Amino acid sequence: MATAEDHFIEYKDFHREQKPSKKAVLANLFREISAFANTSGGEIIVGLDDKTHVEYVQPDCVYDWLENDRLTTAINALSDNLIVLNSKREGVVIRIEVKEAEDVISARVDTLGSGLIASR
């Protein structure tokens, strides 16, 4: 059974969204990634409900966005490689391990539609 969320672990689940927005999903994850990177690191588990700890199959596009180092490449491009992370799929969940960053990272969504903004 999964442990409760704390300052080292966060659960994310997008299975209820029929057509999730890539920008919204990545912005949601990048906020968590930057929070972990600015502290002692941590782990985000995508596909696990935070209240019930039930695993859910995510929309195919979520797996596509998060697998094969696409997330790592996208985040590192935004953050000048200040964040070290690994993402790997285990069954229906994807585990994103975030290391502590060397510099402070700030994440926000650009409301004009150009995506995520990372700064230090």
Which descriptors would you attach to this protein?
alpha+beta; globular; 6 strands; 120 residues; four-stranded mixed β-sheet; 3 helices; two-stranded antiparallel sheet; 28% helix
Briefly characterize the structure:
This protein has 120 residues and is an alpha+beta fold. It has helices at 22-37, 60-66, 70-79, and strands at residues 9-12, 42-46, 85-90, 93-98, 106-110, 115-119. The chain contains 3 helices and 6 strands.
How would you portray this structure in words?
By secondary structure, the protein is an alpha+beta fold. Helix content is 28%, strand content 26%. It contains three helices and six strands. Strands 1-2-4-3 form a four-stranded mixed sheet. It has a two-stranded antiparallel ribbon with strand order 5-6. A hairpin with a 4-residue loop joins strand 5 and strand 6 (115-119). The radius of gyration is 14 Å and the shape is globular. The termini are far apart. The relative contact order is 0.22. The model is unreliable at 111-117 (pLDDT under 50).
Set out the fold topology.
Layout: E1 9-12, H1 22-37, E2 42-46, H2 60-66, H3 70-79, E3 85-90, E4 93-98, E5 106-110, E6 115-119
Parallel strand pairs: 1-2
Antiparallel strand pairs: 2-4, 3-4, 5-6
Count the beta strands: 6
Query: In terms of per-residue confidence, which ranges show pLDDT below 50 for 5 or more consecutive residues?
Result: 111-117
Biggest sheet overview: 4 strands, mixed
> How large a portion of the residues is in β-strands, by DSSP E?
25-35%
Distance between the ends: 37 Å
Q: If you compute it from the alpha carbons, what radius of gyration comes out, rounded to the nearest whole angstrom?
A: 14 Å
Strand order of the largest sheet: 1-2-4-3
What is the helical fraction, as a range of percent? 25-40%
Element-by-element helix/strand order:
EHEHHEEEE
What oligomeric arrangement do these chains adopt? single chain
Overall mean pLDDT stands at 79
Summing up helix and strand content along with how strands pair, one would put the structural category as: alpha+beta
